[in-house]
Amino acid sequence: MSTTHLSRKDYLCALAVVLIWGSNFVVMKVGMKGLSPMMLGALRFALAAFPLILFVRPPRLPWRWVAAYGLVQGLGQFGLLFTALQSGMPAGMASLVIQTQAFFTLLLAAPLLHERAQRHHWLGLCVAAAGLAIIAGGRGAGPGQMTMTGFVLTLGAAFMWAVSNIIVRLASRRSPGYDPFAFIAWSSAAPVLPFLLLAVLIDGWEPALAMVAGMGWSEALSVLYLAGLATLLAYTLWTQLLTRHAAAKVAPFSLLVPVVGLWAASMAFDESLLPLQWLGAACVLAGLVLNQLGGRWLRTR
């Protein structure tokens, strides 16, 4: 059942998710130095699912919800995102562009969930959208540039993320009270085989085996981070928030991810931040504050 106000614990969980996901894009880039996008996806979700599902009971949900979430969020979102990063999408810009999932979520939530966003939600997202546009428009030559292919693929990944948000909300309405950790662990098994099949089809059987056999420490640690922190921990916290609160309240938190992502990318890959990008980040923060606190301010008026 959805609650009205976010508690202090909810805010701390959202902050943890932001920090994990903000650093996530740098880790993906590191992992793909020795692994293809499809193989990285297969290893990530295989490690997130196995051997946990041998010890964790299945969630009290129809299997169609578990499989749908796993395929949309796993194969859809991350298959497209990993391919975008390989296609020239910088890590910092990827952390920015994929946050359009918040807008896709609000657009899908109205017809599918009948959750109407209030005026301050839309106003906050417009301010944040202006910030995202400023950051994207403030790109310079060098590592911060993004390719059109990478941009389109990242937008596709953002749409898939929004669809997975809607699946979580619909599942929580059909079967309230299910275990989010079990849901993430079991749904992680769904994209493993499709990822492996795509890795063999795209990369070839022998190169796919060679990638796994030749993994170094950086690739192995990347897979561990993506499976343990970014998938099991962060998505469990994110799913808990979505099951307890309306999508319009939860989705805007992801707008903080590019602030962390741009900083992490600048530290790891020297992706330079221009003054306009910092201005855009400030707008994103202002939009989030307006989205979360605007209703309270309007009520006091």
Summarize the structure.
This protein has 14 helices and no strands.
Number of domains: 1
Largest sheet: none
Please indicate the percent range of residues in DSSP E strands (runs of 2 or more).
under 5%
Distance between the termini: 30 Å
Description:
The chain is mostly helical and 301 residues long. It has one domain (8-298). It is built from 14 helices and no strands. The protein starts with 7 loop residues before the first helix and ends with a helix. The model has no long low-confidence stretch (mean pLDDT 86). The chain crosses the membrane at residues 12-32, 38-56, 63-85, 91-110, 122-142, 148-168, 180-202, 222-238, 250-269, 275-293.
